[in-house]
Specification:
heterodimer; A: 203 residues; alpha/beta; seven-stranded mixed β-sheet; 6 helices; globular; B: 403 residues; Rossmann fold; 2 domains
Chain lengths: 203, 403
């Protein structure tokens, strides 16, 4: 299916379509996508690093799969995520505010969550709005819940979404990696370091 | 995939080797065997590394449930039991799949309808259960004969729906079905349908993969939702504000959830094309008349195409293999030159014709029929007659042959 649809920052619609239903296809192993176009992983690495460096509030949302050390790989990934966060924090200027906000579980929480300390897949826009997050990365979130969140964010906010997915990737993110490993996350940190100082901070 | 790959080369308790699925299905030697469709189901399940089968006995429509019981007795299925009704069966299948098991079941006709509430639930919960549907009449007065009306209901559930033509399709697609439906970006239940009796009770030559090879076990850690998390949706569905609150956020979340299920159906396209060599099969697509069919209507149409060929009338054929995902683009391309599109079906409403009609341009080209239902056969002669009528050629009435 050929499509002219692009997965772009919103707010897109009262109820935006899933990107898959608009003909966006997931990358194959070794690839990534940017706005729904298949690209090399390195190109996506560079673009993701640029998004972090140019955002006012670059944020990482780690999910349950990396928040608990349920196996060695999860623990290794968690360390890599922490390192990426520290790298972003060190690489942005004083007008920017890097954040690390967990998605600890998927329960709908009412009357409302505390958006300063967590994000919830059922109303992720609350955390985005409250903290004025303009670029974020999901990692360690189960794929169904990640797609739910990414689509709701695209529908109601102008946040640039990145997915570091351990499985097949997410077409509902504006940029998505697949088959995430600790090494891949560290490579992204290397890209942030490499581009430090070469990307204009937000006006 | 890594976890599954680690099993390859190891043996299960029956001495079968967990094999690379692509090698097993496409490269390993095949043995021609003469089996009924029901027996073919048993042979596929023998090689599918199923953890659990739950069934309500559906004999005489198909003996598959009873035959799979024998497989359990032989040690090829992890666990097996009979539910008290089809509704109970499908609910129990959900429980097993929530717990991380590879689950198989089979049903037909009124049983499918009785269990219907479960199917959108399976899809919404992203449970890759495989259900064989040996279609039969569903309306009163009851019939155990083939009729594909139940498929039209399954097509709206969010499940993958495939329609097998032959016992060979059935054998291959049961095994390939698990490979597609368990992909983490898909992870949906599969309704693998056939026209009951015609496929289940008749014997056919089927090329079987080696009996000492089987699929690697299901890896629930690749699931897009947490396995057996009692605190979160989809396992915990009631009592939470997610379903009990009336506000925009609850509605929007639920709407996005539904969209995600259908997005997963779309994602299955890529994997299905790879495993099934396309969503459709075609021949003579440059002909003025094209028949579009699924299930055993394809076999009858193939006969009709051959009969017309002998009379010098060239007709094309599109075999629709998957109904969900729907091969819209493929059908548009295959029928773009056709002046007439004939859609024969084994049901009274013509659901396939409606789908095709919503797919192609200039849908006045579509001729919905011939239809048979309630267990009637579809002689190729009535497809021939339909085509001749469309072409303005006088055709004898088959119904008048005994006169």
């Amino acid at each position: 299916m050929t499509t002219s649809y692009k997965v772009m920052p919103g707010p897109e619609h009262f109820l935006p379509p899933s990107a898959a239903s608009m003909g966006i296809r997931l990358p194959d192993p070794g690839q990534a996508h940017i706005h729904g176009t298949i690209v090399s992983e390195e190109e996506a690495m560079e673009q993701a690093a640029r998004q972090f460096l140019s955002a006012k509030v670059p944020t990482i949302f780690p999910g349950p799969l990396v928040l608990w050390a349920w196996n060695d790989k999860a623990a290794k990934k968690a360390k890599a995520i922490r390192y990426l966060y520290e790298t972003i924090k060190e690489s942005v200027d004083s007008s920017q505010h890097a954040m690390l906000i967990p998605m600890p579980d998927y329960r709908p929480k009412y009357p409302k969550i505390n958006p300063e300390i967590e994000i919830n897949p059922n109303h992720p826009n609350l955390t985005i709005w409250h903290n004025k997050i303009d670029a974020c990365m999901f990692v360690g979130v189960h794929c169904h819940q990640a797609n739910l969140s990414l689509k709701i964010i695209r529908g109601g906010t102008n946040c640039y979404t990145i997915a570091m997915c351990a499985q097949a990737g997410h077409e509902d993110a504006m940029l998505s990696f697949r088959d995430a490993t600790a090494e891949k996350i560290l490579r992204l940190a290397d890209w942030v370091k490499k581009l430090k100082g070469s990307v204009a901070p937000p006006a | 995939m890594a976890a599954q790959a680690s099993f390859i080369g190891q043996k299960n308790k029956k001495g079968q080797v967990y094999s690379d699925p692509w090698h097993m299905m496409n490269e390993a030697p095949r043995t021609p065997s003469f089996f009924t469709g029901s027996e073919v189901i048993k042979e596929a399940v023998r090689r599918a590394s199923c953890d659990m089968m739950v069934a309500y006995p559906i004999t005489p429509q198909s003996e598959a449930a009873a035959l799979c019981g024998e497989l359990f007795a032989e040690g090829y299925i992890g666990d097996y039991f009979r539910g008290e009704s089809e509704f109970a069966v499908m609910s129990q299948c959900a429980g097993a799949a929530f717990g991380g098991a590879r689950v198989f079941t089979t049903t037909a006709g009124p049983g499918t309808m009785r269990a219907m509430e479960n199917f959108p639930m399976w899809a919404g919960a992203r449970l890759p259960i495989q259900m064989i549907v040996t279609c039969r009449g569903i309306n009163s007065p009851l019939s155990i004969q083939p009729d594909t009306l139940e498929i039209s209901y399954l097509m709206q559930t969010g499940m993958l729906v495939w329609h097998a033509e032959t016992a060979q399709d059935f054998y291959d697609w049961i095994l390939k079905g698990y490979m597609v439906s368990e992909e983490p970006d898909v992870h949906l239940p599969l309704a693998l349908c056939c026209d009951g009796f015609f496929v289940t009770h008749t014997k056919d030559m089927v090329d079987l993969t080696p009996v000492d090879m089987c699929l690697p076990p299901y890896d629930p850690y690749r699931s897009p939702v947490p396995c057996m998390d009692m605190e979160c949706p989809p396992v915990r569905m009631m009592r939470d504000p997610f379903v009990m609150k009336s506000n925009y956020i609850s509605y929007a979340t639920h709407a996005s959830w539904q969209q995600e299920v259908w997005a997963a159906v779309e994602r299955s396209r890529k994997h299905t094309i790879r495993w099934m060599d396309g969503l459709i099969e075609t021949e003579n697509t440059d002909a003025d008349v094209i028949v579009v069919a699924s299930g055993t209507a394809v076999s009858q149409s193939r006969e009709a195409v051959a009969m017309l060929e002998e009379e010098g009338i060239r007709v094309g054929l599109v075999k629709v293999k998957t109904l969900r995902p729907w091969p819209g683009e493929e059908i548009r391309e295959a029928t773009k030159h056709a002046k007439h599109i004939i859609v024969p079906e084994f049901n009274v409403i013509g659901w396939l014709a409606r789908e095709v009609s919503a797919t192609v341009q200039n849908n006045e080209r579509i001729h919905a029929g011939p239809h048979v239902c309630g267990g009637m056969t579809m002689p190729p002669e009535i497809i021939v007659a339909e085509i001749k009528t469309v072409l303005g050629i006088k055709a004898p009435s088959l119904a008048g042959r005994g006169g």
